[in-house]
Write a structure and sequence with these properties.
Number of strands: 4
Number of domains: 1
Strand order of the largest sheet: 2-3-1-4
InterPro entries: DUF4936 (IPR032556)
Number of helices: 2
Organism: Collimonas fungivorans
Protein name: DUF4936 domain-containing protein
Low-confidence stretches: none
Pfam families: DUF4936
Radius of gyration: 14 Å
Distance between the termini: 22 Å
CATH topology: Alpha-Beta Plaits
Mean pLDDT: 94
Length: about 100
């Protein structure tokens, strides 16, 4: 069963443009290399001078968090993120009729 991966964290509002460019480049590369759908999202509001950002990866392989950790390091994203990156997996379920 494939799963979707959601990763969220906080980035200072002043770093939003720099982070957006670096993260978008990372996601585009991962999407191309692993043939998966990706999305980068950001909360519309600023809280405590930060936005909450979210990376979304659809139908990822089981070891994909290791791949992402390496990509984050290669693209220098960790320096722009304040606090931990929280990771959650979700699976599709069938709805009751």
């Amino acid at each position: 069963m494939s799963s979707d991966l959601y990763i969220y964290y906080r980035v200072a509002a002043g770093n939003a443009q720099q982070f957006d460019q670096a993260a978008a480049k990372m996601l585009a590369g991962l999407s191309l290399q692993y043939q998966i759908a990706t999305a980068l999202k950001r909360s519309p509001e600023i809280k405590d001078e930060h936005h909450t950002w979210m990376e979304v990866y659809s139908s990822v392989p089981p070891d994909f968090t290791k791949i992402i950790d390496q990509a984050v390091a290669e693209h220098g994203l960790a320096a722009l993120i304040d606090g931990p990156r929280r990771t959650e997996f979700f699976v599709n379920i069938s709805s009751c009729a």
